[in-house]
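Reproducibility note. Readers wishing to regenerate the assembly model reported in the main text can use the exact inputs given here. Chain order matters: entities are listed in the order in which they were concatenated for prediction.
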Amino acid sequence: AKYVYDFTEGNRNLKDLLGGKGANLAEMTNLGLPVPPGFTITTEACRHYLAEGAVHDGLDQEVAEHLKALEERMGRKLGQADDPLLVSVRSGAKFSMPGMMETVLNIGLNDESVHGLAKQAGGNERFAWDSYRRLIQMFGKTVLGIDGDLFEQALDAVKGRRHDTDLDAGELQRLVETYKGIVREQTGKDFPTDPREQMRLAINAVFDSWNAPRAILYRRQERIPADLGTAVNVMAMVFGNYGDDSGTGVAFTRDPGTGRQGIYGDYLQNAQGEDVVAGIRNTIPLEELERLDKTSFDELVRIMETLETHYKDLCDIEFTIERGKLWMLQTRVGKRTAAAAFCIATQLVDQGLITLDEAVTRVTGDQLAQLMFPRFDGGAEKKKIAKGMNASPGAAVGKAVFSSERAVELSGQGEEVILVRRETNPDDLAGMIAAKGILTSRGGKTSHAAVVARGMGKTCVCGAEELDVSTAEHRFTAPGGVVVDEGDVISIDGTSGEVFLGEVPVVASAVVEYFEGAEPDDELVRAVDRIMRHADAQRRLGVRANADTPEDAARARRFGAQGIGLCRTEHMFLGERRQLVEDLVLAATDEERQAALDALEPLQKSDFIGIFQAMEGAPVTIRLIDPPLHEFLPDITDLSVKIATSQDVTDKDRALLAAVKRLHEQNPMLGLRGVRLGLVIPGLFAMQVRAIAQAAKEVPGARPEIMIPLVAAVQELESVREEAVRILAEVGVEALIGTMIEVPRAALTAGQIAEAAEFFSFGTNDLTQMTWGFSRDDVEAAFFSRYLDLGIFGVSPFETLDREGVGRLVRIAVEEGRATRPDLHIGICGEHGGDPDSVHFCHDVGLDYVSCSPFRIPVARLEAGRAAL
Ligand code: PEP
Ligand code: MG
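Running the prediction on these inputs yields the following structure tokens for the assembly.
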């Protein structure tokens, strides 16, 4: 195998092997751009090293050959005393992990070659000693594992209030001695002076840095696989620290915030490597380079154009100017905000660089979702008091409260509250639901608060460590002596992680207003419009909505829903109608039961009329009632207590308690719900079917589809179907009759079930619950953050469909269902229908449509388009 590639041998498609940096350095080299020569050691070599604890046998030899070629090209040898070649050794994984792994510059310097370097630089002693002290500092910290502060302190002691550039050659030379002393003291050995040894140790240190704790943490958070390893780039040094005619900078080919074309970046004179980002001195805006060094500036602008045209995308760049000569040290397709992603994609189409198909693949459903949250008014005056992690996006304003109880209490009185806690735990759930937003001072993006808030779509800032939260005193303090007591208004920005004192005005999302029907009138909205139209034209999957009210149905229609995929009828029985259902369930005689059904039927009918009207002839899948019984019965404990302590208990109360006890279930989610309820309570499903049929008869063009929940056996479906067919015929209305597939047994016997079903809809909420044996109501809060930390899954299976387990059941059901009935219409209506990754899965397994909540419809449309491209 080949473990080392010269920059001239690679290209940008070899990221797996050469890492992102190495692949792009090769690409730039082959484009003829000024890249210092060098070579890349592959990720395969890293994986071997990490697995075996030592480099591959042939590696040293292969590196030596490439170094020799480099030396010949440069006309000097690594660390050669009178005229040294110096190299940098840099990490570069497939996915960028900014600042997570190691880099060592100026390798090849020692007590002799430092003089050679000064000579090479025309007698610039200061530069040579500055480079040498940087080597010991970086090498000491990253290769030898010495605490970096020790070097910083020694530097500060010499520097005082001056800048590093103010130190003269003598001071830097003495600093080198001090640094060497630190190395000796901390490691018991002298700083290694052999250049080849320096290089070898630096390469291994880069390999090792793959498993540094911060890199592991970063990968877990960004869901980067742990076994990729990093490549190592060895490159001839160019120097930005020669003097004022030199420097180093970073640049973007367009504004990563808005997408606008122009010169965006920072430059630092007389500096090297990380100085720009480390903030040691103030950088200057890149435009000013034009004034300092017009030749280099013009060339940089030209190169940026070349890169954009070549990569057909926004690029970011690191460069160095050495005595008026520009060198490219890195480029990659750059990160950008959600808004910029849409704008850039359509700008590139207009420039003729990419097609609309490509533009659709350049944006994601997650980015679109971000643009649909309300945000704070950018122009408003704000008093920022802290910054935490942006755990769940959106903008929330409310009175600070410090306990779950208080949040529930105040929100019950119509107040908007922000729940502030040091951290949250499952006991805070009620308060989190009641609050507009959640703010914690501890915990990261997978903390309880973050995971639960995201699950609820609620704004959350977590880990705002500057805040001192005192739950006992109902207050928190922020830096600068700011005190916020219970009831004081704060504003939190879940998109940026910022916390503000007082009320910041919130503006609705322009993208949502567009989906609601507003004309596209700014660049972003026009870009969204264009991309959505194209995604719609390309997608094969239909997109429907989960909606149970005429209002939701109408919004869903405006957002582009092609029908309703799930109308949950039990949601129509809440509020004051609940009593009617209670009466029905508890009815002791046929007459009582019939009376309850007769009262419900006209209510149901008018519900359906409203929905059919809102959907204007698009199909409406109505699911017959599926409540876990306990949702409709009085709470057994409350009722027992009431009867035990009350003075005037009636016979009716006692009868009620007896009935509730009889129907009480330990596991209501696995109990008498769905089709089981329909089979046990005579007349219930018949009443619903009649209401649907009669409503459909009154709304011209209505297209009802009747869906039976929680079916596990074809026999259950057959008996419900028989009755439904009869009622439909009586009323004289046609409707498809189908079933949900949400119990594993239904998926496994789908071939039989399809005999009695004209359509399937996967209820992946229950299917996930029953496949994993996870209670959908409890486990996310209880232990999912631990499971995420342990890497048992990268994301909750209730959020993104588990392809291996639940997905296998879906595949089986699709295949066997269609084997029985080739024209079987199949969709999904669990929460996964609006999740980007799950939408791609649905496309891949050949579903006909996805159904999701109205606000996710645009996301599903976009992802369905992307899946088809
Ligand atoms: C499901 O189980 O996925 C489903 C859509 O039904 P519900 O969430 O109402 O149980
Ligand atoms: Mg279900």
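We highlight two features of this model. The chain has four domains: 4-236, 247-333, 373-507, 539-627+673-868. Residues 376 and 537 are 34 Å apart (CA to CA).
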